[in-house]
Amino acid sequence: MVNDIMNDMKASIAKTIEAMKTALQKVRTGRASIGILDGIMVDYYGTPTPLNQLASMAVPEARLITIQPWDKGAMAPIEKAIMKSELGLMPNNDGKIIRIPIPPLNEERRRELVKMIKKNAEDYRIEIRNHRRDANAMLKDLEKDKEINKDELKVYQDKVQELTDSSIKQIDELLAAKEKEIMEV
Questions:
Q1: In the chain, which residue ranges form alpha helices assigned H by DSSP?
Q2: With a threshold of 0.85, does the pTM exceed it?
């Protein structure tokens, strides 16, 4: 039973950290990354379709993303979806390929992005602490039901705390790396 609690907590924390990595990929840093286009849905013949299912995407240069639709009829909807997204990107369409230049970020925008990712990181830390709270509550229930004794409870709570601390450290490292990437000129 205790192993189930610990495994559930590890799985929940892994999902939380993966969600943070995905969220950080979508933050524009002034460098081209296909990850910033994740989540863009294109109205393809009346059906919302993920951009990556309609075209091949590449990063041929540090500040350029290219999108080559498999169906030329998808060019205009892809362009429209990118402009409607809140990324602030202006696609250029030459009839065969869509080029998206990634403009460099100004200092004020960099600071706003750092502030935003710090807030997001705190939300992920809170989520991990909630996983800790839930695991500790389940362990206390086991102790109350006499399935584990007080000494075992203390040992398992320490393990839960170690897992929490290492996970929060991982989030802090992800945050620091992204902050450094954003602030690079």
A1: 2-25, 75-84, 107-144, 150-183
A2: no
Q: What does DSSP say about strands 47-50 and 55-61: parallel, antiparallel, or unpaired?
A: unpaired
Q: What is the pLDDT of residues 76-123, one digit of tens each?
A: 899 989 888 877 788 888 888 999 988 777 888 788 888 989 999 999
Q: What residue has token string 């990107």? A: 89
CB atoms within 10 A of CB 9: 22
pLDDT tens digits along 33-49 = 788 888 889 998 888 99
| Lookup result for tokens 């040992």 | 155
> Distances in Å between the alpha carbon of 133 and those of 112, 124, 149?
32, 14, 19
Residues 6 or more apart whose CB falls under 8 angstroms from that of 168 comprise 125, 128, 129
Average pLDDT over residues 3-9: 90
Q: Return the bridge partners of 101, or none.
A: 64
How many angstroms separate the CA atoms of 24 and 20, rounded? 6
Amino acid at 67: I
User: How deeply is 175 buried, as exposed, middle or buried, from its count of CB atoms within 10 A (0-12, 13-18, 19+)?
Assistant: buried
What is the spatial distance between Cα 79 and Cα 65, in angstroms, rounded to a whole number? 13
- 66 forms beta bridges with 58, 99
